[in-house]
Amino acid sequence: MDGEIFCFIHQGGELVKGADGSVEYKGGRNNSVTVNPNMSYDQFVSQICSESNIEAKVVEFHFTVKFDPSCLLPLHDDASLARMFKFNDMFCRVYVSPRADVDADVDVGFVAPASAQTPVISSNSAHMDTHGNTDVDPPRDISDDQPRIESNGFLQSSSAETTSMDQHDSSKFQNTITSSGQIFNSASEFRDALYLMSLAGKFSYSFKRNSPKQMTVVCRVDECPWKITCRAWGSTNTVQVHTFRNVHNHSLEDVASYKPILRSQRASLVIDNVIRSNPDYHPRQICEDFIKQHGMRLSYSQAWHLKEKAKERIYGRPKNYYKLLPWMCERIVQKNPGTIVELNHSSDGHFEQLFIAHAVSIHGFTLGCRPIIAIDSSHMSGAYKDAIFSATSYDANDSVFPLAIGVMSSENYEDWSWFLKNLKKVIGDKKVVIISDRRPALLCSVPEIFGVENHAHCYHHVKEEFSSFLNKNIIKGNKGKENALQWLDSIACARLEHDYNVRMCELRKFNDALATWVEENSPKHWAISKFPKNRWDKMTTNFDESFTVWLRDERHYSICHFMMEHMDKLDAMLVKNKEESTTWEGFIGPKIKEKVMLNITKGEGYPVAPSMNGVFGVCIGKSVLNVDTRNQTCTCKAWQMLGIPCEHACAALLSTGQNVYDFVEDCYKFRKQELIYSGSFRPIETHDMPSVNNDGVVRDLTGRIFCSLNPPHGTKRPMGRPRKKHIESQVMDRKTLFCSQCHMAGHNRKTCKRSLS
After folding, report:
1. Strands laid side by side in the 691-692 sheet
2. Nearest-CA neighbor of 651 among 669, 671, 676, 626?
3. β-strand 400-408 against 351-357: which pairing, if any?
C-alpha cells in the first residue's frame, strides 16, 4: 500500500448495534489522523497518542474491519496493525479504551465511574444521588473489561482472553451499576448488571416491582437500606436508574444466610470470556472457581447448564446453525468450483446427511495420491449427537491427505452406504483399496460399492478382537497372552505364503482354538500375504484417527463452526505441506528418505553374488534371496509391495555403485508432491451471512429469505461431559486376573463360584 490512510480515533463512547445489524458509535469524543500503512506499531501508537493527547501506557487499542464493523479486534503489535491496513481500504477506525490494570480515575478520555465498589459492610449510613443528573455514565459492557459488541460471524473476538476464572477479579462486577441516571438499553440488560453486581457483592436481592417499564429492587436482609429503582423512557425499551442507594447494613449472620441465588441465564455471563478462550472449561472447574470467586457452591448439573447457556450466548442457539447449512453449502461451492457437496434431509425438513469433498482434495488425490483410502468415524460432542465420517489418503511424503468428510445424524448401514456412494463419485473409475474397521455396517457397505477384493480390514481392530477372544479362553499368565499376540503380528505381517503357514503352525501348536479363530476371521482382508491388492504396507486406519485428533477441539462446536474450522485447518495444512516440500533435500521427502536410509544401513553387510540380466543373489545366513534390479522385485516381496528398495535390494544396488534413491517409486517423489498440492483453495467469507430471526426464518440484511433446515430427529445430547477418549485398548499391557483356586481367568479367589474340595 503506497497511499496514506485516513484513521478515525474514537474515545470514551461505545459501539451500539441496532436491530437491523447496523453499528453506531455513541458518546465520547472523536478525532482523526492520517497514517502511513508502512509505519510500525510503535510509530502508529506514538502518532495517535501525540495528536489525541493520550498517555500510551494507560490505554489499549482495538480496530474494526470493513466487512464486520460490529466486532472489535485487538491492536497490539505490528502483525495486527498490518491486518488493520490490509482489510480496510481508504479509511479505518481505531477505538481507545483504558487498560484493565489501570486505576479507574486515570484520565484517558473516558467518563470515570461515579461511585466506588459496592462493599457488603455493617453501617447505618445511606446516601441517595439526586435524579436528573445529565452527565451520566454511558452504559458499560457488563461481561468484559473492554468495549465489545457481538459479531454476526461465527467466531467472536476478545483481546483479553483468559483460561480460568481465577484470573478475573470478581470485584470488577461491582461497578456494573454505578449511579442514578445510568442508562441501559433494555430491562434485561439492567437485570444482568444487577445480578452480576450481587455476585460480586455477595448479597441477595428481591424485586418489589418487576416490569419492563418500572423496577424496584431491595436487599433481602430486613432493614437493609440498599435499594435501586429503574424506569423506562417513554415508549422505548431504554431504562434509566432513578434511585441508587448503594449501602448495605448486614451482620455476619446476614452475610451467611443471604447469599446470591443461582440463575444460570445470568450467572453464565461471568464465564463468557473463559469459554471463548477455552471451550474445554469443565463443569468441575466451574464449580471450583465459583466457590473461590463468589462463595457459591454449585452442583455438576448447575455448572453444566451454566456452560451451555454461555455457549449459546456466544455462538448462538445450536439448532439455528442447521438452518444456515444450505446457505453455507452454496457458498462453499461458489468459492471453490469443482467442490462436491451433497446435503440430504427428511421429507419434513430435518437434517440427515452431509458430504463434502473440496475441489483441492479431489485434484490432489486424482493427480498424485496412491489409490488407498482409510475411512473412519467419530462423534461430535456438541448439542446434537452427530457423527463425523472421514476419508483420508497419503501424499508423496506419507503424510495425511484429507479427501472427504461427512456429517451424519446417525451411524448405520444407510449412512455409510450413502457416504461411500458419494465417495465413489469423487474418485471416479480409479481403482482404490479401502481400509476400515470391522463394524457390521462397513462389512456390508464397502464390498457392495468398492468390491470385496478391495476391502482391507484394519489390523488394529482385528488385534483388539483377538485380544478379547484371548481373555475368554484359558490363556494362563501375561506371558502366554503376549506370545499369542506376537504370533498374530507375525501372521499379519508375513509377506510370503510360506512364512504365513509356518507362523500358523506355531500358533496352532500353542492353542488350536486361536488358530481356528484366525482362519474364521477373514485373514485375506488383513494379512499382507493373503490380500490380493497392493496396500503399501498400510495395515491400519490409525493414521486416519490422527485426522480425528486433528479436529479434536472442533468436534465440540456446532456443525457450522466445525465446517469453518475444518476449512481453516485444511487451508493451513495444504500451505504447510506445500512449503515444506520446497525444502526437501533431493527428490524424496524426509519420511521416505528415513525409510531408505534404514534399509541401506541394514543391507550394507549382506554378501551379494552378481548374476545375469540384473539379477543378484543376496545371502541372509543360509538363505539366498534374488533381487531383480530391472523389474524392481525381491524374493521377500517388500520392494514390490512398498515401492521402496528393501534392505536386500539396497545391498544389490550398492554393490554395483548405483544410487538407491533412483529406484524409489515415482509416487514418493517431489514431482508427485508438487502435483498433489498444485490446486488452490479459498476459505469462505461470512461477513454477509444471513441470520436466523426469532420466527425461525433465515434472512440477510437486505431482507432476502433463504431456505433452511431443522436439527436432526431425536439426537439431542443429554446432560454430562461427552467421553473424549477411546475405550481402553485390549492389547495394551494390562494385568490379567486369575483365580488362585481354580486357575481360571476373569475372576479372583473371593468371587470364585467353584466349591472348595
Report:
1. 691-692, 698-699, 705-706
2. 626
3. antiparallel
Residues 6+ apart with CB under 8 A from 252: none
In this predicted structure, what is the pLDDT of residue 121?
A: 34
Whole-number Å distance between alpha carbons of 539 and 458: 6
Secondary structure in 3-state letters for 446-486: HHHHHCHHHEEECHHHHHHHHHHHHHHCCCCCHHHHHHHHH
CA distance linking residue 158 with residue 156, whole number of Å: 7
Backbone angles phi, psi at 45, to 5 degrees: -60, -40
Alpha-carbon distances, residue 297 vs 173, 287, 289 (angstroms): 19, 7, 9
Query: β-strand 455-457 against 433-436: which pairing, if any?
Result: parallel
Confidence of residue 727 (pLDDT cuts 50, 70, 90): very low
Cell 502511513 found at: 36
Three-state DSSP at 140 gives: coil
pLDDT in tens, 11-43: 877 767 665 555 677 767 778 888 888 888 888
Task: From residue 680, give the alpha-carbon distance in Å to each of 87, 264, 565, 570, 674.
Answer: 21, 46, 18, 11, 12
- Nearest 10 degrees: Cα torsion 738, 744, 750, 756: -140
The cell numbers describing 253, all together, are: 449472620
How far from chain centre, in Å, is Cα 388? 13
Distance CA 532, CA 526 (A): 10
**Residues near 382 by Cβ (< 8 Å), separated by ≥ 6?**
318, 555, 556, 557, 558, 559, 562, 717
Residue pair 435/416 in contact by the 8 Å Cβ criterion: no
Q: How far is CA 246 from CA 49, 56, 118, 490, 584, in A?
A: 37, 34, 7, 79, 69
What is residue 554's predicted lDDT score, i.e. its pLDDT? 63
Contact in structure between 307 and 281 (CB atoms under 8 Å)? yes
Q: Alpha helices, DSSP H only, in 511-661?
A: 512-520, 542-550, 559-581, 590-603, 638-642, 647-655
Q: How many CA atoms lie within 13 A of 216 on its CB side?
A: 3
Contact, 359 vs 332, CB < 8 A? Answer: no
Q: Can you give the pLDDT at residue 34?
A: 84
Q: How far is CA 236 from CA 185, 212, 231, 244, 257, in A?
A: 9, 10, 11, 22, 38
Would you state the cell numbers that stand for residue 20, as one nine-digit string?
A: 437491523
Q: What is the pTM of this model?
A: 0.63
DSSP-assigned letters across all residues of 534-566:
--TT---SHHHHHHHHHTTTGGGS-HHHHHHHH
What is the sign of the dihedral through the CA atoms of 654, 656, 659 and 660? negative
Question: What is the Cα–Cα distance from 164 to 162, expressed in whole angstroms?
Answer: 6
Per-residue burial over 152-164, b = 16 or more CB atoms within 10 Å of its CB, e = otherwise: bbbebbbbbeeee
Q: Give residue 108's identity as a one-letter amino acid code.
A: V
**Which amino acid is present at 676?**
I
Residue 743 zone, left/alpha/beta (φ > 0; ψ -120 to 50; rest): left
